[in-house]
Write a structure and sequence with these properties.
The chain is mainly α and 302 residues long. The protein folds into 2 domains: 146 residues, Four Helix Bundle (Hemerythrin (Met), subunit A) (Up-down Bundle), CATH 1.20.120.350; 106 residues, Helix Hairpins (Orthogonal Bundle). Helix content is 68%, strand content 2%. The protein has a two-stranded antiparallel sheet with strand order 1-2. The longest helix has 37 residues. The relative contact order is 0.07. The C terminus is likely disordered.
Length: 302
């Protein structure tokens, strides 16, 4: 009798721990609850403040006057982000996947330099420490992860990837031909076009309308060709912008067709019109008509 009670108590304790762990996971990994949104806002404030400290510390006058304050703030932010990173590792189910993911690596890189600087003591390592401390700027990359609209842009860029890759290959071919032509025209009389790679560099700078001015054609034929390249540069720059804009528009209209029902369990919105269960937590959606033969999706792999 006592054994069964102990087992029941242990089972209830395990379920309680699992429920608490899932609750913490939803708060820090999702932004679909009130507490999760508050967590994201507070975290973004800390990230912005830590990046601001890095920027102010790069100013010599301010750094000399507030060296002690900057040191304390840096350790404060480092401890906060370390605790956050450890909590994420503790509540996520697949720790290896998170640790090796993009934002998992960014989280780690944002805290490592401060700890490494403790062990690299000595004037000969000052330059190394300075470079390592710059890695703290990786914290700013975490901010994009907490903006819901960032997913729209990321999906648009991902969908545009194949088209932009073909476009970049075309541009690379074009500037290679243009650079070679300029080398044949200007190579003998203009030291700025001393080789084909140097001429290709000039073609890239010209076609992107950057125009550093460090290399310029001298002959009439070279100026005519450069004028054609400059004018074509306006059209070339508009192509990738048009591709990404089109994909953003498609994503927007796709989102308009999504169902506006809200999951009562996790608060997620944006389900397929025919969905009967939430794609994040697997709970039944309100007013959803079950489809014949439809299988309940697995719980989100948290």
């Amino acid at each position: 009798m006592e054994g069964s009670k102990k087992k029941e108590t242990m089972a209830n304790s395990t379920r309680g721990v699992q429920s608490f762990r899932e609750w913490v996971w939803r708060v820090i990994f999702l932004s679909d609850t009130r507490l999760g949104q508050v967590f994201d806002v507070v975290l973004m404030v800390f990230i912005g403040a830590s990046v601001g400290v890095v920027m102010l510390e790069s100013v010599d006058e301010i750094r000399h006057e507030r060296a002690s304050l900057f040191w304390k703030l840096e350790w404060f932010f480092t401890i906060v982000f370390t605790i956050e990173y450890l909590i994420r590792l503790a509540v996520v189910r697949k720790r290896r996947n998170y640790a090796l993911s993009f934002f998992g690596i960014v989280d780690l890189l944002s805290i490592l330099p401060t700890y490494i600087a403790v062990f690299l003591v000595g004037s000969q390592y000052l330059m190394v420490i300075r470079i390592l401390r710059l890695l703290r700027m990786f914290r700013v990359l975490k901010m994009a992860h907490h903006f819901g609209q960032a997913n729209v842009l990321l999906k648009a860029l991902r969908s545009s990837g194949p088209k932009i890759s073909v476009f970049l290959f075309f541009i690379l071919t074009l500037v290679s031909v243009e650079g070679t032509l300029m080398y044949l025209i200007e190579g003998g009389s203009n030291p700025g076009f001393s080789s084909i790679p140097q001429s290709i560099y000039w073609a890239i700078v010209t076609v992107t309308t950057v125009g550093y001015g460090d290399v310029a054609p001298l002959t009439v034929a070279g100026k005519v060709l450069s004028s054609i390249i400059m004018l074509s540069g306006f059209a070339i720059i508009a192509v990738p912008a048009g591709i990404v804009t089109t994909e953003i528009g498609r994503g927007y209209f796709r989102s308009l067709r999504m169902d506006g029902r809200k999951c009562a369990e996790c608060g997620w919105q944006g389900h397929d019109p025919s969905a009967s269960f939430c794609k994040h937590c697997g709970c039944k959606l309100p007013d959803a008509e079950p489809q014949v033969g439809a299988a309940r999706p697995h719980e989100s792999d948290w």
